[in-house]
Amino acid sequence: MVKIITRQSVGKENVYDIGVEKDHNFVIQNNLIASNCFNKSHSTAYGYVTYQTAYLKANYPLEYMAALLTANSGDTDKVQKYISTCLSMNIQIEPPDINRSGVDFTPVGDKILFGFSAVRNVGQNAIACILEAREASGEFKSLSDFCDRVDLRAVNRRTLESLIYCGAFDKLEANRHQLIKDLELVYDWAQSRAKDRASGQGNLFDLLGGFTTTTTAKSPNNVFDSAPKAQPVPDFPPQKKLQMEKELLGFYVSDHPLKSIKSSSSVLAPINLSQLSEQKEDSLLCAVVMLNNVKKVITKKGDPMAILQIEDLSGQSEAVVFPKTYERISLLLEVDARLIIWGKVDRRDEQVQLIVEDVEAVESVQMVMVELTPQQATTIEERDRLRNILKELSGEKEKAKVPVIGIIQAGNSRQLVRFGRQFWVQDSRSTVIALQNARFLAQIKYLTGS
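^ thats the sequence. predicted structure below, dont judge the formating
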């Protein structure tokens, strides 16, 4: 043990936590320092924590992932990453439920239920009020029952709209548009009843106990049957419902616009956004994404460009569109659009982003599908014939944007084969014609399945 004699300030400097074999000093007290006492204990503590978390994830995956989501609920990027991890573990994330959700993410059966605290516009007072009413009188039976039992000073109209839009009332009424229309009438009705109770007047039907001479077992007295209801309306389109979920929860939960094309898009773009950081600098790749935000920027020369926020089923990332590219693709850059993006990986300021070179709407993306017999797939001459046709039609690498997929049919078995990027072609129609003329069974396949 030694003692520090003098100290001198050198201003602000980066500090690194490193372990060395000898003379690694650690301040104890009164300027005394101990040698080589830090690195081993530090690594031991990290090793023990790693063991604990690995054990919990392996043996209590639902509870572990629910705790992880709750602890990071304020970080959209991390939550989306963990939701993707849950899906890979076959753990389904359910949207909030007015009769089952608690404050935080909660394991329910073999699923994880969204907590109320993760819903925008739903404050702590509103959550406490909802949980108290549910604990006191059981599950809510309808929107009117809910509005009548909770304190509408804490659970205001905006909070109720948010709960409806994110799907919290779906188990009571699946038509969210109908609930929003009903809310316009039910909210005022429930406020009026609350004022009557507060003044001691009560309601005529409450005083009579819902008396009726036609009460039957199939038609019980229920004061909420008299609650006002709007004219029937069709539900919101699926895309609108998902858009509102994303706005209020920060993620698509009940579904995702890219889920329906997951299998075909993984063939076209096998690398997802969560793997961008693993790719080499300037490597060219493509990704099937949702466009979350478009920020238009004007350069010093006065040229427009854009910074994009994109996401897929695995996570989110940033993409940059420089002026020349922006001029060509700007009309496709609309928020909530499903796009396939071609670009290069770029690392700047320790951040990985995509430099966009081209984009195309998912709905218009085509693939060439070639069906092969086992004999064609295994015969060298046939494979060479197919390879030569594709190389001839690929042309310049940068312009070849149409992928080629092979299907090997053997009895009831169908095996999918993805041709490499070097065999992509420029024009799907001329490729199909050339393949058919060469006695290959080929057709155009759209990414969306149409």
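Residues 15-59 form one domain.
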